[in-house]
Amino acid sequence: MLFKKKLKFVAGLAIASLLAACGEKAEQSADTKQVEKQSFEWKLVTSWPKNFPGLGTAPERFAEMVGEMSDGRLKVKVYGAGQLVPALEVFDAVSRGTAEMGHSGAYYWKGKSPAAQFFTSVPFGLTAQEMHGWIHYGGGMELWKEVYAPFNLIPLAGGNTGVQMGGWFNKEINSIDDLKGLKMRIPGLGGEVLARAGGTPQTLPGAEIFTSLQTGAIDATEWVGPYNDLAFGLYKAAKYYYYPGWHEPGSMMEFTVNKDAFNALPKDLQAIVRTASRAVNQDMLDEYTSRNNAALKELVDEHKVDLRPFPKEVLMKLRTLSDEVLLEVANKDPMTKKVYESFKAYKDKVVKYHSISEQAFINARNAE
Predict the structure, then answer these.
(1) Which among 180, 206, 189 has a CA at the least distance from the CA of 80?
(2) In the 8-state DSSP scheme, what is residue 85?
(3) Which of 81, 82, 188, 195 is at a distance of 20 to 30 A from 98, taking alpha carbons?
(4) How far is Cα 323 from Cα 312, in angstroms, rounded to an integer?
């Protein structure tokens, strides 16, 4: 009899526990569904003029894509440079939460961390295809996150322009001496190489380039390539258009996300943000690859731009100076050295492979 009473008591406890557990699960399920139904509104600030071709339209596409994939649960409003914050204050604005996201270039933030420059482009470094490989499969993204963590930021690849042009000049470049005293708009590591060659690099937002070049405040400028350079009308302010873009062979743009804002999103919206940024990253490269062809033809055929290659000896000297600058920058702090060593190790490997694949094929295709 006593045994039966104990059995009933234990069974009662088990049922009660089961019901309690079911209740907890039901409450958790309700809480999860409640979070999933919650809507969010984000601000996305950029370093580009509103809807500027390529650079400015990429964040607009991102916002549209996120809105569609989330069925309107995450709405992203894009602000062009100067609409909410100045072009070169995007990093700080997202870091402190003034905006939840930003779109810009990491080399603008070298004052925050010298290592940041490696996540846009390195002179004589990686092409777009190679850069994507290092970031997503070669350890670059993990390092990028580590560099940005102290600033409460999460980085995401946000587009690539491919190999850029060497820039617009108001005088001929026939030797390395022609760069001495040259005032040129050129940011990042490329600017440091120019300084080593005797030039004076300046960092200017896109909207200020044309006027600065036209008024003589600068003697030369690099911007992006034919597609964007045509849109800014730079051919009206400078005579010579040089190639190749030794300073930016595969320039990656970035989305920066405020970490607190990102963590406040449910998992599915976080996945949407990551997926949309990855799609835009590839889409931008596709657009530049297509649009640059037609734009260059228009610049040369219709606007009679004087298109010239940099002399070989100038490029060789710039490459030597670049190697020197990179070593010095790498030794500034342990984090920068860590990023540099990863970048260089990946480059050494991919260059060997591409010499018998991409480069060998292009050489064969173009042989006469």
Answers:
(1) 206
(2) S
(3) 188
(4) 17
* Angstrom distance (rounded) from CA 158 to CA 101: 11
Question: What's the angle, vertex CA 111, arms to CA 110 and CA 113, rounded to 5?
Answer: 60
- Find the helix or strand (DSSP H, E) in which 14 lies: helix 2-37
Contact 168, 363 (CB under 8 A): no
Q: Is the four-CA dihedral 209, 212, 218, 219 of positive or negative sign?
A: positive
**Over the Cα atoms of the chain, what is R_g?**
26
For the chain, helix, strand, coil in percent to 5 are 60, 15, 30
Give the pair of three-digit tokens for residue 255: 């989305």
What residues in the chain have per-residue pLDDT under 70?
Answer: 1-36
CA distances from 157 to 245, 323, 327 (A): 21, 25, 25
Q: Please report the DSSP string for 160-191 in residue order.
A: E--S---EEESS---SGGGGTT-EEE--HHHH
Residue with tokens 């044309």: 210
51 DSSP 8-state letter: T
Rounded to a whole number, what is the distance in angstroms from the first to the last CA of the chain?
103
Q: Residue 54: count other Cβ atoms within 10 Å of its Cβ.
A: 22
Q: Is the peptide bond before 334 cis (omega within 30 degrees of 0)?
A: no
**CA-based nearest residue to 166, from 96, 248, 54:** 248
Considering only CA atoms, which of 104, 117, 62, 95 is closest in space to residue 205? Answer: 104
pLDDT in tens, 42-95: 999 999 999 999 999 999 999 999 999 999 999 999 999 999 999 999 999 999
Buried b (16+ CB within 10 A) or exposed e, 1-12: eeeeeeeeeeee
The encoded tokens of residue 3 equal 């045994």
Contacts of 255 (CB under 8 A, 6+ apart): 59, 62, 101, 102, 103, 155, 156, 157, 158, 277
Specify the pTM.
0.88
Cα 75 from Cα 62, distance rounded (Å)? 11
- Residues paired with residue 195 on neighbouring β-strands, in sequence order: none
For the residues of 110-153, what is the DSSP string, one character each? TTT-GGGGGGT--TT---HHHHHHHHHHSSHHHHHHHHHGGGTE
